[in-house]
Amino acid sequence: MDVVVGFLVAWAAGKARRVAKIVDGLTDDALDAAGERVWKVVAPKLGVDPSIQRLTAEARDAGEATPGARADAVRALQAAAAADPHFAAELAAALPAAERSASTPSHSGVIATGNTVGRNLKIDNSSTFVNKVRQNPFYAILALAVLALVVWGLSSAFGGPAQADASTVVGNWTASDGTGNKSFSADGQCDGVFYDQGKPLDIGGPMSCALSEKPDSNGLYTLRVTQSMNKATYKLRFDSKDHATVFDSAGRKLYELERF
Question: Is this model's pTM higher than 0.70 or not?
Answer without folding.
Answer: no
